[in-house]
Design brief:
globular, Rossmann fold, 9% strand, 181 residues, single chain, three-stranded parallel sheet, mainly alpha
């Protein structure tokens, strides 16, 4: 969020709501309801990585849950942004066969999510390809599964770079009506 605040040239107050290993089902039925009663300028849904790790397909049920999650988020916020899964198929701890299987599933899920987001008025950030240095040793922690601090920094920069200047201006203007001079 510091990178987003810097790019918007304004302060950002933010809250994080999450649960280790949460799939889209948990996000929809357990996490989003905890936000009810408040209104947010922007709500970012991170959707996909845990579903992929659980080998949950991007089928009609998943599409329906993403659509319902977006609809619920739109009732809670002025703008809804959906972050795709990361490049889970690049994890060095996985063998080539699993990496290939995850890559196919990841790219298909991204295609489906893009369609659902476009049809339901959410801005989709596809981070399933192109993270620089995702295949280098410094990018990963010693467990060869999680990104290192530097790896997460690279991912954060890539995410923010997905936002056009006009999108940044739009986001920066949100909530200003609540500010006093």
């Amino acid at each position: 969020m510091r990178l987003l605040a810097k790019r918007m040239n304004r302060n950002v107050e933010w809250n994080l709501v999450g649960k280790f290993g949460a799939t889209l089902t948990r996000v929809r039925y357990r996490l989003l309801p905890t936000l009810e009663g408040s209104h947010w300028d922007v709500l970012i849904l991170c959707a996909g990585s845990n579903d992929l790790m659980a080998f949950r397909p991007a089928d009609e049920k998943w599409k329906k849950e993403l659509k319902e999650s977006i609809e619920m988020a739109k009732g809670l916020a002025d703008k809804v942004i959906v972050f795709s899964s990361a490049e889970v198929y690049m994890v060095p701890a996985f063998g080539r066969s699993l990496q290939n299987q995850l890559k196919k599933a990841t790219l298909y899920q991204a295609k489906v999510a893009q369609e659902v987001c476009e049809a339901n008025g959410a801005f989709y950030v596809n981070q399933t390809v192109g993270t620089p240095h995702g295949d280098t040793k410094w990018f990963w922690c010693s467990d060869c599964f999680h990104p290192s601090y530097e790896g997460y920094r690279v991912i954060a920069n890539c995410l923010i770079n997905h936002f056009s200047d006009s999108r940044i201006k739009e986001l920066a203007s949100l909530g200003l009506k609540d500010c006093k001079d």
